[in-house]
Amino acid sequence: xxxxxxxxxxxxxxxxxxxxxxxxxxxxxxxxxxxxxxxxxxxxxxxxxxxxxxxxxxxxxxxxxxxxxxxxxxxxxxxxxxxxxxxxxxxxxxxxxxxxxxxxxxxxxxxxxxxxxxxxxxxxxxxxxxxxxxxxxxxxxxxxxxxxxxxxxxxxxxxxxxxxxxxxxxxxxxxxxxxxxxxxxxxxxxxxxxxxxxxxxxxxxxxxxxxxxxxxxxxxxxxxxxxxxxxxxxxxxxxxxxxxxxxxxxxxxxxxxxxxxxxxxxxxxxxxxxxxxxxxxxxxxxxxxxxxxxxxxxxxx
Amino acid sequence: xxxxxxxxxxxxxxxxxxxxxxxxxxxxxxxxxxxxxxxxxxxxxxxxxxxxxxxxxxxxxxxxxxxxxxxxxxxxxxxxxxxxxxxxxxxxxxxxxxxxxxxxxxxxxxxxxxxxxxxxxxxxxxxxxxxxxxxxxxxxxxxxxxxxxxxxxxxxxxxxxxxxxxxxxxxxxxxxxxxxxxxxxxxxxxxxxxxxxxxxxxxxxxxxxxxxxxxxxxxxxxxxxxxxxxxxxxxxxxxxxxxxxxxxxxxxxxxxxxxxxxxxxxxxxxxxxxxxxxxxxxxxxxxxxxxxxxxxxxxxxxxxxxxxxxxxxxxxxxxxxxxxxxxxxxxxxxxxxxxxxxxxxxxxxxxxxxxxxxxxxxxxxxxxxxxxxxxxxxxxxxxxxxxxxxxxxxxxxxxxxxxxxxxxxxxxxxxxxxxxxxxxxxxxxxxxxxxxxxxxxxxxxx
Lengths: 301, 446
Known about the structure:
- The structure holds two protein chains of two kinds.
- Chain A is built from twelve helices and eight strands.
- Helix content of chain A is 51%, strand content 13%.
- Chain A has helices at residues 3-13, 18-28, 34-46, 51-67, 73-88, 114-127, 144-155, 168-181, 199-215, 234-245, 264-272, 293-300, and strands at residues 102-107, 132-135, 158-160, 186-190, 220-228, 250-254, 276-280, 288-290.
- By secondary structure, chain B is an alpha/beta fold.
- Helices cover 58% and strands 9% of the residues of chain B.
- Chain B has 19 helices and eight strands.
- Chain B has an eight-stranded mixed β-sheet with strand order 3-2-4-1-5-6-7-8, with helices on both faces.
- Chain B: InterPro entries: AAA+_ATPase (IPR003593), P-loop_NTPase (IPR027417), Signal_recog_part_SRP54_M_sf (IPR036891), Signal_recog_particl_SRP54_hlx (IPR013822), Signal_recog_particle_SRP54_M (IPR004125), SRP (IPR004780), SRP54 (IPR022941), SRP54_GTPase_dom (IPR000897).
- Chain B: Keywords: Cytoplasm, GTP-binding, Hydrolase, Nucleotide-binding, Ribonucleoprotein, RNA-binding, Signal recognition particle.
- Chain B: One of its GO terms (cellular component) is signal recognition particle.
- Chain B: Part of the signal recognition particle protein translocation system, which is composed of SRP and FtsY.
């Protein structure tokens, strides 16, 4: 089953997904009036797109409907879809390295699914023929190291670890040395889940980045921010905060298989222009999929 | 803590209202539009917001507001009351079983923070001289059991586990038997987190519920949850008939609108909030205070309570008097600082003060070292100097700096900082008088 089907499947699980609601609405409403726009606005906000982006989209939609002299309410959906696609922009995304060796830092707040995503990502990259190593950089949360090890075993990749409470920068340092010695293609580093307003933890992240910069200058470096699709507008704040500490290259959007609509993605693309690279659509090893903005919007409608 | 974002939004809205005499219908409508946006941005569910706006508007349009002499205040009153109604009216305590142990079951999505919260609640109970037992029923997430065991060891609370090969229902049952045998008066069951639409998980949770008949089924919700909070709450409540909610991760710049949503759809009280990464970061949830905080009246009651845990009341009253009469000295400052250490970060305390816009605070992280320096400087002063800092001249500064192992610059910084603090207190004292006149109870000391 391709990722598209899987995504579609994940989304059809959604009891009241956007599509259904739009269809419902459009079959009921016949004229294009304020009420129609207001209800479209409601649908977008209910999908966590956020007030700002929703207003922007609705404004664009109104303008376009006027310009194109659309009179059929059924057509409005197509235009809304176009606008969403434009905002989501760009081509299909993935996390394949442009060159090797590569170091991937995985960051994000507590409980978004960082460790799990790393396990899935290791499996994904290994499947593409890369040699993978994991670094257990979350030395803070109880048993985080054990959790990463379980995932490492499942994916069949090495995990470099220290004891709980150890200096994460030291773990990353060791992992870099091992990665060099074992000719690893991609080193994926776990980090402690940090609430983005905690200064010390953000400082720790900076320190880790310095270690990578110094010890592995030749590596292709990427930082991926893991976001939970059930998170509301706070996801934007999280993204902004992490941008302040590291250059975030992409987003891994997890837990998209529930009833959460993933509308944050639209807002993040709109306001911060950080592309979503992968999406988590289930609990299995294979449930991390490449992200295609166009297909994503298509799957919604 | 939380809600600052929302608070500043609403404050902005009401500032606009306050400036005017009587409210026109359009004013009310405009204000409600902004309240609506503020609430939506705070992730309160769209439908909940709509209901809220309707009910507040309905009351306002019932001419109460327009005929009132102070319309702005009246709107605040109505909005406040409605928010309290949404948040669940009063503080809600844990249900305690007549025959121990009291059984508490934690449920919720993955990553909501169940396991950590189980540790926090156990510590909270232990502090109140209870004997909690933690039971590890999450056999699915890798290392979840280990995580609970590590937490248990940190707070010296026993953890019952049968590994990850035994059925969670059996683990729960055996855990309670174990608790009874060992005289534990509280048994906290940590369950697996999965998606709320996962039938299998729901059935497992239902089976555990049936097997152990818990006194409390607490839904653990991430305060950062967006619109989906309503679905989650509905599913868990519909299937398990939860008894309450715990809100986690409320320490970020989380606006915490999920609190309002969850409460509105389940009608179940929020019992605790998790406010930080440390195991002691657990607070009781007070709906009325939270509402007044949303409205920018702050959470002065929480402040008082927090203070009372570490300061005895007489000292606090004394300090209150000093602030009012502006007799605040460096000695008080020193004493306050020492008490502050017991209370937690200054920033958290400041945020509870009404009208305090935390976003304007900027970087107020006071690090421990700086506090130690400050302490040293004040301790190097004579009694007279502490009572009356204005007598500190250049030579005295030099002596103080030497005595405290700091620099003159640092002494200067402290003195000017103290002067600022004193000015600020003056303003607060003034504000308090003004508010009383406006018939607004300023709940500093009842």
